[in-house]
Amino acid sequence: MTTHYIDLTLLPDPEFSHAHLWRALYAKLHRALVQLETSVIGVSFPEYRLRPQTLGQVLRLHGEPTPLEQLMGTDWLKGMRDHVQIAALSPVPAGTQHRVVQRRQFKTSAERLRRRRMQRKDETAEQAAAAIPLSVEQKPNLPYVQLRSSSSAQSFYLWIELGDLQASPSPGGFTAYGLGQAGRGSIPWF
């Protein structure tokens, strides 16, 4: 249950792009959630829009007061404090609806899928191309944060999708990115 929230608002910066600031903030949050080994802090993006695709400027952290205070008591925002305005811990407004904010993954590169298939099935490039046509590529139209995997150093897109509004919360924990999964782990939406 998420009864409280903290808003983090990205401030404009002439030296860094909005995308660069999002990438830095979200990567730091992910590392902090992993380090704390918590699945009780969720995120939302109150300014989320599909047209134009944007997460906006606000990252909202959701949870109970103790885990949120524990997170904010760490030094996870080191290097970002000049770029973020931090609001006070506040209770969620009464009567709010809920929704799951989750990651969506897409097959965006037939070439990458072919290379992976060649490795896993010991196939030639021709066999993999026959098995995976270009038509499998999907063109996502969701807002995203571009991140870098700490384990593989590969860059990837973390596409964010909003579930339907619901009158009551759906139970479940959150991933190390603060996202719900498989329709579970909703946050208050306001």
From TrEMBL:
Q: Which GO terms describe its biological process?
A: maintenance of CRISPR repeat elements
Database matches in Gene3D superfamilies: CRISPR-associated endoribonuclease Cas6/Csy4
Q: Which GO terms describe its molecular function?
A: endonuclease activity
Pfam families recorded: Cas_Csy4
What InterPro entries does its record include?
Answer: CRISPR-assoc_prot_Csy4 (IPR013396), CRISPR-Cas6/Csy4_sf (IPR042564)
Q: Where does the source fall among the domains of life?
A: Bacteria
Name of protein: CRISPR-associated protein, Csy4 family
Protein source organism: Giesbergeria anulus
Taxonomic lineage is: Bacteria, Pseudomonadati, Pseudomonadota, Betaproteobacteria, Burkholderiales
